[in-house]
Amino acid sequence: MTYARIPESVIAAVLRSHDIVETVGKYVHLTKHGKYMKGLCPFHSEKTPSFTVTPEKQIFHCYGCGKGGDVIRFVAEIEGYSFPEAVKTMAEQAGIPVSWSAPSAGPSPVDSARDKLREAHELAAKFYHYLLLNTAQGREAMAYLRSRGIGEKLIDRFVIGYAPKGWDTLAKFLESRKFDLGLMEKGGLLAAKQDGSGFVDRFRGRIMFPIWSRDGKVIAFGGRILGDGQPKYLNSPETPLFAKSRLLYNFHQARPAIRKSGTVVLFEGYMDVIKAWSAGVANGVATMGTALTPEHAAALRPHADEAIICYDGDAAGQNAVLKTVPLLERAGLRVSVAMLPGGLDPDEFIDKYGPEAFVRETLEHPVSVTKFKLIYLRKTIYS
Ligand SMILES: [Zn+2]
User: Fold this and answer.
1) Cα(43) to centroid(ligand 1), Å
2) Neighbours of ion ligand 1 (CB under 5 A)
3) Any idea which fold 251-382 has?
4) Where is the Toprim domain (predicted)?
């Protein structure tokens, strides 16, 4: 995909139609300090604000991490868009015609690599999904998913797939589509052979869960091993597309339900999100193999007033709850905790007692943070 050069007049119109204070204000709580507005930076983790917006100049700048620019840069950065994608989205929002067709100056190399990676991820997701549903290789994976209560509806909804055991199933597929395999390695789909003679698939013998950006594009994968083997869960590495500290699994699908209810349910893993979805929980999201960060919390705040934390019932999960609460509260969310009995995680609870019981007995009756802390304290003292 190549971009036509975007006319300056379109960029100017987009800048005019999006006030930076209003746009940034959807993500960051800003307070006025003379000529500046100040807030906690959404791009790095901090406790005292070093993120500033200057309305007069319509720019933002962070003295902590150095990020800065105009409102288009801000949207590109926070939504994970390339510059042209941000212009296009913002132009559409403002009703500015986007059919620019000036002679192409070609995309910048960075934007072009990102586009290639996005395209490869979309294709890989469809490829894995096809292999799961339609080939003999996918049969064992299908049987496993069914045994875990994940039927075809969920498989389709979450575009679950299967990466076969062979060394180069995806590598060959991408090669046949003329992708640069070196770039695919940087994007986390392939791994370089140790002797430097080529590339192999990063994910093999795994059930594949696409991970989407906020605007619903596949940008990474989580893979669960089929059968025994290590590691049990393997995620894409950090890549130009995939920033774990900012991304929440299922956010693009959950956003409408989060907005409608004003509530987000936070899980620890994608299996929990998927199983909860089968219980009618459409506002669930999960972090991807990391603890919740201030960036995650900031991303939720424009959409929700309330967060219900639903982490594993074991000691590690409960410790994680304690660490997560202040981050969400600092972002301005009301927080409560859904308790799971017997050290179960949400996925296991649903397997054992069913989806209805999960909603009825845990999510509908979350406890306050104060009560959670008392229960936690009692457990840690007396056990
Ligand atoms: Zn910063």
Assistant:
1) 5
2) 41, 43-44, 62, 64-65
3) Dna Topoisomerase Vi A Subunit; Chain: A, domain 2 (3.40.1360)
4) 262-343
